[in-house]
Amino acid sequence: MKNLRAFILCFFPIMLTGLAAEGCKKEPPVVPEPTLSLTAVDASCTEAWLRIRSVEVPATVRLVQVTPTSRT
What we know:
Layout: H1 2-22, E1 36-43, E2 48-54
Antiparallel strand pairs: 1-2
């Protein structure tokens, strides 16, 4: 009987603490995806002018050439 009482006295506070901690979980904040708008304004034989608009200011933009062209 003493073992059962000791078990109950130890088990219930641990269980209640676990249930209370389970209820306190917070959802991670939703972070909106950054949007970027790239528009070709003008182009010549060797240059292109681009207009970049970003929702977040300041923004860092890195332009990478996907298909390299042969140099003459």
